[in-house]
Amino acid sequence: ANALVHAWGERGVDVTLVESPDIGTVGVGEGSTPRLKIFFDTIGVEESEWMPKCNATYKNGISFVGWSTRPGYEHYFHPFASQVDQHTKTAFYFNNHARRLGVDVHAHPDRFFLSARLSANRQGPIPNESFPFVMDYGYHFDAGLVGEYLKDIALSRGATYHPARVVDVNVRPNGDIESLVTDTDEKIEADFFIDCSGFAGTLIQKFLKVPFVSYGDNLFNDSAVVLPTGQETSIGSQTVSTALSFGWAWQIPLTHRIGNGYVYSSSFCDADDAEKELRQYLGLLDSDVEARHLKMKVGRVERHWERNCLALGLSQGFIEPLEATALNIVCNTIYDFIATVDKEGLAGAGRDGFNERVNDGFEMVRDYIVAHYILNTRDDTDYWRQNGANTHVPERLQQILQIWKSGQGVAQEMERQQIRSSYTAMSWVCLLSGYGFFPDTRDVEGAGQYASQVNMAEIDEFVRRCALNFRSQDELLTFS
Q1: Is 297 among the catalytic positions?
Q2: Going by fewer Cβ within 10 Å, which terminus of the chain is more open, N or C?
Q3: What angle do CA 469, 473, 477 make, to 5 degrees?
């Protein structure tokens, strides 16, 4: 609603949000990528305005714990790419190339990136003014509070709020939606409708009958259990994703609490056992804190823009929350829609191209998420063994893995082969090297020349000195 009001409000476009007062929101998805900062900047909302009201904190990236069992690679950090990385990324790529040739050099990502050091120190991503580089970062936040805050902003800028539950849809003779029918027999007419009804897909799937494409063959997880805990003495600046028996647990630090959840597959574990494992992991077996259980519908609709309706958010699809991609997809979809309408109009001239781009965006994110599972080396449960043995590997992911295993430069080959991805080559190399996904032995003539060209002591000192320009997360959140 805010995006539409900002883009089209001055052109006389009326935006009405119809929201049921008795259907709650999911209330999770409390982490973001840097795309959310672009959204807030675009609509003109300062961090000092929204973050304190939404218990928000800064996010440098994500730590992955226990996904790999290879010695020395049981943990790695996935940073958001930043300007300062240009000073260490070349050395990171160089050592990873050497390591894939069998040379015993340091290739784990954590020592090469400033964001990893900041997260380990519980520092935020905003540097002192004298520091010459800009850091990219995401946020952690209370999802319910962000929704309420954005509602207030949208209403103050001209949107209309209509509390009601949609029970039926009137359709025009040509198949377009004419109006929504509410539980009080009101009819809400519009030229265009946006379906944000969550997994129900009330308009796009129930009434317009757009098929759903499941990702179940690629991604097994379909359930989650959520359990908040109190905040620690100092506030962390990273999301932590820890592999458990039948999935993984998230840990998200807010200013007033830590959000915890366990994403798992109901084919391998029932809800009671999942809650028990999460409580045991958190040390809350005897706690009376109530847990919430959720079901997830993983996949996407075939067409996101159908007739005079756009599906957005969970109604258009969902890829499990491992890399906090949901809001990224929402922002990309709505701004692509706005740009397409500005160029081609609402009649649908640009609809097919738009749908292809959004579908490709979903697939690109899916490929990166799937890689986390098929590359795991755990052997403690059937869940992890079957993930590692899964043969449903998307073609684009197969191409990237082949580039990596062949020892070629990932960035150069992705560009040469025109392999598009939502994730940069740096992110792919962080994932692959963070898992320790290297050949055991290789005998490549001349490989020894790579052994001592990167001075890790210099890298460590550069990262250490850079970190001196940053304050703790606690200090940053005073917004002074």
Answers
A1: no
A2: C
A3: 110
The model's pLDDT over 58-113, given as tens digits with 9 standing for 90+, comes to 999 999 999 999 999 999 999 998 999 999 999 999 999 999 988 889 999 999 99
pTM for this one? Answer: 0.96
Can you say how many angstroms the Cα of residue 167 is from the centroid of all Cα atoms in its chain?
32
The bridge status of strand 247-253 relative to strand 257-264 is: antiparallel
Q: What is the mean pLDDT of the chain?
A: 95
Q: Look at strands 257-264 and 177-182 and give their pairing.
A: unpaired
Q: Which residues, in sequence order, are CB contacts of 428 under 8 Å at separation 6+?
A: 368, 371, 400, 404, 410, 414, 421
For residues 328 and 60, give the distance between their C-alpha atoms in angstroms, rounded to a whole number: 16
Instruction: Please calculate the CA angle 198-201-206 and round it to the nearest 5 degrees.
Output: 155
Q: Which residues of 419-435 are buried (b: 16+ CB within 10 A; e: fewer)?
A: bebbbbbbbbbbbbbbb
Please report the DSSP string for 388-447 in residue order. Answer: HT-----HHHHHHHHHHHHT--HHHHHHHTT---SS-HHHHHHHHHHTT---S----TTG
Q: 196 near 312, Cβ under 8 Å?
A: yes
Q: Measuring CA to CA, which residue among 462, 475, 477, 466 is closest to residue 132?
A: 466
Instruction: Give residue 341's identity as a one-letter amino acid code.
Output: V
Q: Can you tell me the distance from the alpha carbon of 337 to that of 388, in angstroms, rounded to the nearest whole number? A: 37
Contact partners, residue 246, CB within 8 Å, separation at least 6: 264, 265, 268, 269, 274, 277, 381, 383
Catalytic residue among 59, 151, 187, 295: 59
Tokens of 414: 């992705």
Q: Which two tokens stand for residue 171?
A: 């359709």
DSSP 281-338: HHT-TT--PPPEEEE---EEES-SEETTEEE-GGGTEE--GGG--HHHHHHHHHHHHH
User: Residue 289 has which token pair?
Assistant: 């804190």
